[in-house]
Specification:
Blueprint (H helix, E strand, L loop, with lengths): L7 H12 L5 H8 L8 H8 L7 H23 L8 H13 L13 H17 L9 H13 L17 H20 L10 H17 L1 H9 L5 H9 L8 H14 L3 H14 L2 H4 L4 H9 L8 H22 L6
């Protein structure tokens, strides 16, 4: 995987934190917000997700136990005759089978058979184990950054050079387990995004709209004049946490910040989505309805670098600092 250079003094800070007998998670979150060094990402993400305990003496034992727990779920939930599944389980299984081939279309490695099978297993098991929402379209996108990062421990170098021949079922089960437990933690803070009628997403889109109206009324008014509803583009942004709007390498960098935000990352997503939209404000106000819709649904981010994403993250941070109090009355639960 590729990554912009991280200053050496920051890398040293990461190493120092990770070498402590008990990792200071608050300090690790603060440091990780601006990006995690490539080789340290797997360990840092496991810590930020609460998958690994901060006490170093307990980490290897915990990792072994959690991976074993996941491995035990595979025969219990996945490797069973189809006729033993309930009607709802069959429907969930079919939905996962439909969605997995659509995952990260611009990342060929994810379409290797061993990776597709792995995605099918972990997404299906996640859905069965979380009946309040079950598997929902878009969750396949949420797991891809975890999958790439945990695979990077076994496949060095850029993703373009990875070979599936270097993988086996033992490696994949360990990677799957790590992805499963980290996905559990990520979705914990946005569970109502995926329950019936997706109330969390509806609220988030409303708050993005209100925030844009407050801080950039000309953009808001232009979209309203052109009859463009925020739900027409922002629903996908919130549902997939902006993964589909960015080159995949930037989605991984974005996860550094999400995980550093902790359970409050869904709040930050409001400000990030508004900052993302407003990064195109000059262009948006020049377009009419049809061109607006096309533009917003296919934003020209293919050539973006980390520097452009960092600018949007910085703008989001500023928006939150400026408007978090004004937005408080919009939190409907």
């Amino acid at each position: 995987m590729h990554q912009a250079a991280i200053p050496e003094h920051r890398v040293r800070k990461f190493h120092k934190l990770l070498q402590e007998s008990v990792v200071d998670l608050d300090a690790l979150r603060e440091l990780s917000w601006s990006g995690v060094p490539l080789v340290l990402r797997p360990q840092v993400w496991r810590l930020l997700c609460g998958y690994l305990p901060p006490a170093k003496s307990r980490q290897s034992q915990t990792l072994e136990r959690r991976r074993r727990e996941y491995a035990d779920m595979v025969p219990e939930y996945y490797d069973i005759p189809h006729e033993e599944r309930s009607e709802d389980e069959v429907a969930a299984y079919r939905q996962v089978l439909v969605d997995v081939p659509r995952t990260a279309p611009n990342v060929p490695f994810f379409h290797e058979p061993i990776i597709q099978e792995s995605l099918q297993r972990l997404l299906y098991i996640w859905g069965i184990r979380h009946p309040a929402s079950g598997y929902v379209q878009g969750m396949n996108d949420l797991v891809t950054p975890f999958l790439a990062v945990f695979l990077s421990e076994h496949l060095p170098g850029p993703m373009e050079s990875w070979s599936a021949e270097a993988l086996n079922q033992t490696i994949m089960l360990a990677v799957e387990a790590d992805c499963y437990w980290c996905l559990c933690k990520l979705v914990e803070g946005i569970q109502d995004h995926y329950t019936y009628a997706q109330p969390g997403i509806q609220r988030a889109v409303f708050r993005i709209k209100e925030l844009v109206r407050r801080c950039q009324s000309d953009v808001s008014e232009h979209l309203e004049t052109e009859a463009v509803d925020f739900i027409q583009f922002a629903l996908r942004w919130v549902n997939c946490l902006l993964v589909r709007e960015l080159p995949f390498c930037l989605a991984i960098r974005l996860w550094d910040t999400y995980l550093a935000e902790g359970t409050g990352f869904s709040e930050f997503l409001i400000y990030l989505s508004a900052a993302f939209l407003l990064s195109w404000k000059d262009r948006l106000t020049q377009l009419e309805f049809q061109d607006l819709i096309l533009f917003l649904q296919r934003l020209p981010t293919a050539e973006w670098t980390e520097a452009q994403l960092e600018r949007v993250l910085s703008e989001a941070f500023i928006l939150r600092s400026s408007y978090s109090d004004a937005q408080s009355h919009l939190r409907l639960g």
